[in-house]
Amino acid sequence: MRFTFERRLRQPGWLSLAVPVASVLFAFFVAGIVLLATGHNPLSTYRQLFDAAFLQTGSLNQTLIVATPLAFTGLAAAAAFRMKLFNIGAEGQMYIGAITGAAAGLYLGGNGGSSAFVIAAMVVMGCLGGTAWALIPGVLRAFCKTNEILTSLLLNYVAGLLLTYLIFQSQSYWRETKGFNASVFPTGKELPPSAVWPGWTIHVQGGITLPLGAGFAVAAAVVLWVLYKRTRFGFEAQVLGDSDRAARYSGVRVRRKILAVMALSGAIAGLGGASQVGDFAHSVDGDPNGLQKLGYGYTGIVIAALARYNPYAVVLVAFLMGGLENAGNTLQGANFPAGLVGVIQGIILFSALGGEVLIRHRVRIVRTKRGVAATEPGPAA
Amino acid sequence: MNIRIKLALALALAGVVALVGALTSSASHRATPYKVAFIYVGPHNDGGWSQAHEQGRLYVQKALGSKVQTTYKENIAVGAQFAQTVQSLVAQGYKLIFATSYGYLTKAFVAKYPDVLFEQATGTDQTKNLAEYFGRAEDTVFLSGMAAGAASKTGKIGYVVPFPIPEVIRHANAFALGAQLMHPGATVSLVWTNSWFDPAKEKKAAQSLVTAGADVVGQNVDSPAAGQYSESAKIPWVGYDSDAKKFAPKSWLTASVYNWGPYYLKRVKAAMNDTWKTGFYYGTIKDGFTKLAPYGPGVTAATKAKIAAYQRKLVNGSFYEFQGPLYDQSGKLRVKKGVKMDILTGGTNSLYGMNWLVKGVIGSAKG
Amino acid sequence: MNNSLLIVLIASGIAYGTPLLYASLGELLAERSGVLNLGVEGMMLVGAVMGFWTVQRVHTSAGIALTAAILVAALAGAVMASIHAFLVITLRASQIVSGLALTIFAGAAGLSSYLGNDLNLSDAPARHTFHAVFPASMQRWSVIGPIVFGQDILVYVSWACVIAIWLYLSRTRPGLNVRSVGESPAAADTMGINVTSYRYAHTLAGGAFAGVAGASITLAITPQWVNGITGGAGWIAIALVIFAFWRPELCLVGAYFFGALQALAPQLQARHISLGPTVLWTNALPYVMTIVVLVVVSSGTARSRLGAPAALGNAYAREER
Known about the structure:
The complex is a heterotrimer.
Chain A: E1 2-7, H1 13-37, H2 42-55, H3 59-81, H4 90-110, H5 115-144, H6 148-169, H7 180-184, E2 199-202, E3 208-211, H8 212-230, H9 232-242, H10 244-249, H11 254-281, H12 291-294, H13 296-306, H14 311-331, H15 338-360, E4 361-366
Antiparallel strand pairs in A: 1-4, 2-3
Helix pairs in contact in A: 1-2, 1-15, 2-3, 2-14, 3-8, 3-11, 3-13, 3-14, 4-5, 4-6, 4-11, 4-13, 5-6, 5-11, 8-9, 8-11, 8-14, 9-11, 13-14, 14-15
Chain B: H1 2-24, E1 34-39, H2 49-64, E2 68-73, H3 80-91, E3 96-99, H4 107-111, E4 117-121, E5 130-135, H5 137-151, E6 156-161, H6 166-182, E7 187-192, H7 199-211, E8 216-219, H8 225-233, E9 237-240, E10 252-258, H9 261-272, E11 280-283, E12 290-292, H10 301-316, E13 326-327, E14 333-335, E15 361-362
Parallel strand pairs in B: 1-2, 1-3, 3-4, 4-5, 5-11, 6-7, 6-8, 7-15, 8-9, 9-10
Antiparallel strand pairs in B: 10-12, 13-14
Helix pairs in contact in B: 2-9, 5-6, 5-10, 7-8
Chain C: H1 5-32, H2 40-57, H3 62-90, H4 95-106, H5 111-118, H6 136-139, H7 144-149, H8 153-171, H9 173-183, H10 185-190, H11 195-221, H12 233-243, H13 248-270, H14 279-300
């Protein structure tokens, strides 16, 4: 018995509903077996999961807090991966964006700039910080042919060390040095009120605050979509992504494109960093048990790939992933080992991935001579 | 197409939610136990800091049985993840939350939950629903430093440290003062791992110290990795935070350990009886809050007796390791003769803000 | 002499580089067949926990227990890799997502953590560990003592693996077939090579190597179990394959280089040597040095792809040939 796959020329509409439903059900079925085997009630577990992610009072608000940085890192990955530039460095570019964005906020806000001006400066500085960090692997790739996966990954570690250094190991501009608390434990300097990003609160579910950063993320998604679908830049980037040689023959200036795409990707990640500071932390979070522990940049890659690099889909998947992350924290505890959370999250991802394949392909099961019983073409199975 | 797929996925999720919700809604009207949660920065079984708190939680659960329901959340990052965790705990009816690491709680944060009681380990902020607690481990670290000093022949001692924050600097200083008491002129070399918990780095740090000449290794980090290396290098080792003798049976000297359980029990009981009040608790040897783990074979009877004598003096107040004169690395007098450093008060003499290393410690206070 | 900085760095570079070497050799095999597996960290952790479990539970002599542990770890790694193989080879799902999902599924907050907790492995040291095989007198020999004779058996076996894989890829028929599967699966298929089988076999072998890499951490370097004990070594291993231009002998050089660099910062601190104005510089040095070496090597190489299998990351669909 053997599976064969035919690429669907036309993807029937009902499939795009049926397959995701089936993949989710399949994931819950498999995860249910795991849960039963480990002595947990699947139904109450799932209920807790959805409560924590989307339903409970305050849950949507918390989900947005996680989804916002994930949308940025997802978009940063999508922007580069589309051109087959594997920028793994959104994590580090986000840290640098947080550092430069916070510098603008602390300096200008502290000197009495108007709020709109200070926030605009933080956005610009955040983007520039991320861009500068992303251009290191970009330049090395464009001019020295150095593999960007490796350099951008290594620079994440360097950015993390820098972040910790600024708050924990030096008396830097970003570190709070006044007051007793600051002498007990290193913390970042609090942003002045004019540098704190406003949010828009909807009064349902105990108040859901849409962070300004979430708005920027959606705007970034629109810009990316327009750029890649409607401009010559995007077209050339895609050609280059498909074939280096074809692009060269058709006159695309490859080096310039690599630099531009890396800069764009870094700018989005850097903006995510500025949003971390402006929207949520209100200071540079240099604690190794803080921002660096969350790995938003790496989750962003999963999101971008699951969304097949479509910017709008990235935003939506980031939201779902944010919910899943929060659900994980809510589930784990004395009666539910943390390791099981990752197992369930993994099963959901595997199923979503397998199901997605079924939308694009028709599966046929070819019986071989031995005539083993054919199985149903279930999702991800 | 993709957006439709994702939208459909969202719809599917919503459908499942409704279904699951309908299937599992159950109303229970039993007397509900008092719910207490503990939030850990590392895994609950890390063999160190978080595990010590976990033992405290189990102590409470055992003592109060069905009257309380306790849980923990492990590996929770400071910031947004902590906020989300608290929010979901509160939604589940948890009334008392122990946040076991600095940086978790602020005054503004606890003000959002006026009906919930918070306690934070190692911090300083107090409000009407936020209390702080920690232990006077510098005393026991000092005693463990005595064991290290007595075990050293060359007077060159290595000390593995995580991050250059006052808590760690205070402990490194206490360790050095203890070592120098038993071995006058002993030096303590620091290697910073720049990580709260990383066995591989801790082993490398211990190896570096030993190959650079240290003949005893101590640590302010949690894992037994430095101890396992010391065992293989036949070097005496002083641990921290847990009794890790089984990881290095021959090298093991002792360690300063915390006993959180009785404090937790007292506070949970107070919260249940509505007698809980905010405060700053700094547990001592006398309270049974901090103590030395059982000795290993390398500690001589004479050393044990001397440590016991100093422990008595610490308890009755006739001795205090952070009483002047204290000199810094450069030999400059930092605390005048007779002046006692204090935890919260004391300005430049505050132990909670100590950012300089005492004489004989080799390394930088900046990491 | 044997405690001098250079000797210590070389000796510990070899010791600490060994898990990186095993994991990168495995990833190299998978990638040579065209399958990128970003789940190395997860596979390593499951190998690490299962290998450790075996040593704790199998009550026989040290030699048998450790051999069994390595086999169990290899098997566990291969089982993890089989999930990835099924998704990306049979279902042709995205290799990037599947690998990252595998890390979530198996990693520090996933299966390995569950197993470690459920099997209660974190409260005791390993009952048996790999340690230096040569007598202490030989280890005291100047220079070569610590470097060559101070290592455990896993180090020597890894040298044999490097040679075996090098011979396999360059001298044997199946090895050449793998390379053509990774370069051009369509052409390989026309030549009658079963692309699917080759990819499955090498992805699973890659998982087995990652499992052994994990066990080499919990049974040799830090003989204990805690969540996430690999500390990101899996990611470094993936990077090393690129660093090594997909060649096993260069994996060895890269792994030892990185192992030594990781030992550098604590060594400098312990010897009171200051390299620069700040601690930041010393800590960032391993990463910066790696980037510099990579830049020097890659800009000196004329080939544009630097040894990457051409079909790496692409699913092969016979029907769409």
